[in-house]
Amino acid sequence: MAFYNKKISDIFTELSSTEHGLSSKEAATRQRKYGKNTLPKKKKDSILKIFIHEFIDPMVLLLVAAIVASLVVGEIIDALVIAGIILVDAIMGTYQENKANNTAEALADLVTVKAKVLRDGEVNAINAEDLTLGDVVMLESGDKISADMRIIDSQNFTVDESILTGESVQVAKSSDVLDKEKLSIGDQSNMVFSGTTVVSGRAKAVVVSIALDTELGKIADSLANTDEEKSPLTIRVEKLSKQISILVVSVAVLIAILLIVKHVPYNEIFVTVIAFAVSAMPEGLPLALTMALTIASNRMAKKNVIVRKLKAAESLGSCTVIASDKTGTLTVNQQTAKRILLPNGQEYQVSGTGFDASGKVTGPAIKYAEEIGLYGALNNEASIEHEPTGDSIDIAFLVLAKKLGVKTKGIKIIDRIPYESENKYSAVFYEKDGETYCTVKGSLEVVKSFCSTVRFTNDTAKDYRKLDMQNENLARDGYRVIALANGKIARKEKYTEKDIKKLDFAGMVGFIDPIRKEAVASIRECHEAGIKVMMITGDHPLTAFSIAKDLKLVTEYEQVATGDDVDVAFKEGKAHFDKFVANKLVFARVTPLQKLNIVNSLKRQGEFVAVTGDGVNDAPALKAANIGVAMGSGTDIARETADMIIVDDNFKSIVAGVKEGRVAYSNIRKIIFFLISCGLAEAAFFCLAIACNMPMPLVAVQLLWLNVVTDGIQDFAMSFEKAEKGILQEKPRNPKESIFDRSLLREIVISGLIITIVVFGAWYFFYSVLGMELEVARGYTMCLMVFIQNVHVFNCRSERRSAFSVPLRKNPIMLFGILGTLLLQIIVMEVPVLSELLQTVSIPALEMLGLFGIALIILFVMEIYKLIANAVVKK
């Protein structure tokens, strides 16, 4: 129901209320009828629920199948070890996600919002959740509005509605009836909405909607109908699990055929095939992935990026488009005076950003700039003594005065006319050196109407035309322009607008919400990384264009589209709309629905979209995006909807998240390279042993030791690898692309086959040529395999670069991992109980050195491969 086009008397009749508010009894009755004024909060997942969810993973389900298979063939130790791995993985994942959720929760506003209402004819402060329909609320500067309300009367009343509209400029409000059938939220100047904040002035308003019936509530409710997107890693791991399953089953069928041909009894075939399947399964992979993502999310947290879901840690690294909010993300969200223009064309440049007064004003004859700074400081209702409070333009004027060193001591304020939206000006009457003056600031048209002269000039009509041009040029460049005038007037006790006349036009000040100093470099990094950056804002198109131009995001206005343009293109159909969106980089004055349509269009085009936002208006797009990125200072709804949270609201942190996401994915590929190549070798020499009628080179418990202990330590170490040089210059990977792309698959197969040839060749030599006892030959083979794994880990530190070009100092944990696995291997060989359990033997030092020399073959072969592969790529 629209209330902006109704008279106040009609609204009170409709709500059965009066200008004096409700009685306590009636309020209680309505609360029982309509419920509390609260939005249903997303229930926090319990630790148990998070823990159970960790098991609903394709890789984990594969390992569960391996446990069942191990129990079937009587390998109890195998089953227990694999179960232990799954349990540790689940505990780690649960801890990390619960920690992230707790951090996100801690960002929520813990202060209970209060509202001042008229109850029983008196003003009472109550919890905002107790507001009900028909309550009359008293609003003033700094209040958070907690329900949708129709204004009854107001004085100098402005509201920050950016949380709903995305527009950074405060909106002036009044009680005037708006005689139109359909108005957007931003145009309903006699309404205030839940979640917004009073910037200046006072108002009395009646509550017309609460809870889910508010504009904020409607958006929150709509989120339930938006499907969540899978993270790129989830998509890739699902593919990987299928590929591993197909590979294991295929080889198992091959082994079964070999055994059938050899007329092996069927019960032995069954046991052998199951034993192979268990040994070929990469038991340590789920835990290794969890470790890599945990380390990545911790690194991100240090860079102000909180990952809410562990598998989303690498998501930003996959994005191809970042659709960013403007206010507070690319800009500082603090209006700043940047240019002072005098009527004679003289101009002053103002340095510094936001509410920090450390900048300075440069230009000729600085005294004229100081006069303008003085007028702005006198005609002001803000304060910057402690925390900046008040209208953002008033705060900016006080900061400007401070940069100019302006003092107001000795100047007495006699009277003032506050700013009213319909008047478009404010005035102050003051006494200085025994003379009485009036200074006015506001829109150019209104300020000109109070002036009879223009400073520095004689031809007023001509000068007004020049001022109009100056104003248009500033507005075209995205500045918000405030004109100022000053002049002597007669001394009176009380002043009205009629007393403001014959002033001298002093000049204009251009204000803008400046870009963050690091934003340009961050956007450039995105472009170098192959990521398209778009800006979606509720601001005026000219302001958006100016900011985007300063950010080096656009070069011409044709790259900007308005909300009206979006609607027109959308009506032409999906194909036309997708083409329209693809050719634009800035979208201004867009609604939440339009933003959602833009995101869906980008996804249809095959883009992997990261959307940033802080307001309720951003929540639908955040949820629909592949990666929703909420600002830490944003609303609860935005934070609950997003996959990750940027604590400092800075675009630079998003770019840092992209880099860490790519590092996380790179490390996961390195771990998979290492694990699968070693697993492939184990499976291959298993098959070769059967084909050659030889005993298995390694028994199940030895394979388990290699897969869980030695592999596990190296997996952990590789999770700490730092970013490789040029990682941000690489193009984003297609999220639908398999982890096993052609280059990785080639490296896995080549290294796996080399390990197979070396290990099986050594096994054949030990057992068949030297005639070693079975247990002794297996002990030597196991030791060789440990050495090969410790050498091969150097190959896996980079898919393209030489192992010798990646210094160990970048990852000292790797060195400790290698020394640790070697020490553990020596212990199990030398301690009788462990030696017997793992069916290994003590090996003389000189022979161990020989085994290590053989292990170096894998390093040299892969170095030659990388050399050839890099040479081919360069061609």
Kindly describe this structure.
There is one protein chain. The protein is α/β, with parallel strands linked by helices and 875 residues long. The longest helix is centred in the C-terminal third of the chain and has 41 residues, at 651-691. Residues 107-111 have low confidence and may be disordered. The chain is built from 28 helices and 24 strands. A hairpin with a 2-residue loop joins strand 14 (425-432) and strand 15. It is elongated, with a radius of gyration of 35 Å. Strands 10, 11, 12, 13, 14, 15, 16, 17 and 18 form a nine-stranded mixed β-sheet that branches.
Summarize the structure.
The protein has 28 helices and 24 strands. It is of the alpha/beta class. The strands form three sheets. Strands 10, 11, 12, 13, 14, 15, 16, 17 and 18 form a nine-stranded mixed beta sheet that branches. Strands 8-24-23-22-9-19-21-20 form an eight-stranded mixed beta sheet, with helices on both faces. Strands 1, 2, 3, 4, 5, 6 and 7 form a seven-stranded antiparallel beta sheet that branches.
